[in-house]
Amino acid sequence: MNAPKALRTPGDLAAAKLIGRDQLRSLEQVAARYAVSITPALTELIDPADQFDPIARQFIPDTRELVIAPEESPDPIGDDAHSPVEGIVHRYPDRALLKLVNVCAVYCRFCFRREVVGPGQGALSPSVLDNALDYIRRSPQIWEIILTGGDPLVLSARRLKHIVTRLSTIAHVKVIRVHTRLPVAAPEKITPTLVRALRVRDKATFVVLHTNHPRELSAKVRAACARFIDAGIPMLSQSVLLRGVNDDAETLGALMRKLVESRIKPYYLHHADLAPGTAHLRTGIAEGQALMRELHGRTSGLCQPAYVLDIPGGFGKSPIGPNYLSADCSVVEDFNGRRHAYAAACSSAGKNTAVSNS
Ligand code: SF4
User: Looking at 53, 215, 273, 282, which residue is catalytic?
Assistant: First the structure.
């Protein structure tokens, strides 16, 4: 029997009963614009009888994707403005992205790089990769390299090993961080060989898992993540706040707890970027802040990600609250929402005062 394959067209989705035949024509228009792929591991998690299924919502195309809001942009976080050479985004002084590939195992409907990722987009050519690595070598301020794409882990273990080994020869690069959705999309692909490919002497390697709903963390996915962690590669997580997927405190709390139980530290909760055709999946920032307050009130500090916004135009990420301290530092709010006076001033009167020993 043939192994199940990813669903890549509206026809595949209809055959799998994830959409109705009557939706075929309209969703083909969406698929012509934005790539579609749902792996067998994620297809298994979808309940076709539930029209509000949070996994389906992340991957099944929707005609609303063809409605572009005026504030949306094809390059919502300004990658292009900070790309000194092809394959590199150098936004912050001490770290740079190395975008190895523009292909993913699954295509998320909210993707902020949806205009550039998709089948056939391929990986960096050898000469472009050489040039990107040269840029890193010539930039001694780069302390951390973030391997991204697309999903860098769709590359073969051999190719990843080759790239990581070349990075390991650059003395000023101390940390290699890999951003991936592959452990969720295809946990069987996180093999011991792939895990070994990412480990390199004298550099700290971190893997950041992209995951948005607690149901994504199946036993197989947690076992795949354990292969990284048991090999000495710590894991962090990053999630996107999405309407109808995780925009309630119970789901968000369950996701963060399940991550921590799997030895994965929640790192970022992204406010959804202004990617084209994604307004139906975006919440308001005030809703996000209210959810973060609830999370703070009901879950351990280990379960708290930073709620961040990538500022449109390429100005980087900023934490966007909520804020628990008044502007003049006179009132601070506790985890139950009760407000307390704080007597000391915002800045210390003794700051920079020399200590006299006489
Ligand atoms: S895995 Fe990441 S890069 Fe790929 S489609 Fe999803 S959000 Fe975009």
Answer: 273
Tell me, rounded to whole angstroms, the distance of Cα 340 from its chain centroid. 36
Hey, whose CA ends up nearest to atom 8 of ligand 1?
A: 111
Tokens of 208: 């950041």
Report pLDDT digits (tens) over 238-266: 999 999 999 999 999 999 999 999 999 99
Q: Where are the beta strands (DSSP E) in the chain?
A: 88-92, 95-99, 144-148, 175-180, 204-210, 235-241, 264-271, 306-310, 317-319, 331-333, 339-341
Sign (positive or negative) of CA dihedral 199, 200, 202, 204: negative
Q: How far apart are CA 21 and CA 314, in angstroms?
A: 41
- For residue 50, the one-letter residue type is D
Q: Is the dihedral of CA 72, 76, 81, 84 positive or negative?
A: negative
Q: Give 233-244 as a DSSP string.
A: --EEEEEEE-TT
- d(C-alpha 292, C-alpha 28), whole Å: 37
Q: Annotated catalytic residue: which of 220, 227, 317, 324?
A: 317
Cis amide prior to 4 (ω within 30 degrees) = no
CB atoms within 10 A of CB 294: 17
Told to judge if 338 belongs to the known catalytic residues of this protein, a careful annotator would answer no
Helix (H) or strand (E) holding 291: helix 285-298
Indicate the pTM of the whole model: 0.95
The pair phi, psi for residue 32, each rounded to 5°, is -70, -25
Q: What is the pLDDT of residues 39-61, one digit of tens each?
A: 999 999 999 999 999 999 999 99
Strand partners for 317: 310
Strands in 122-195 per DSSP E: 144-148, 175-180
From 108, 115, 209, mutation site for ligand 1 pocket: most ligand atoms within 8 A of C-beta: 108
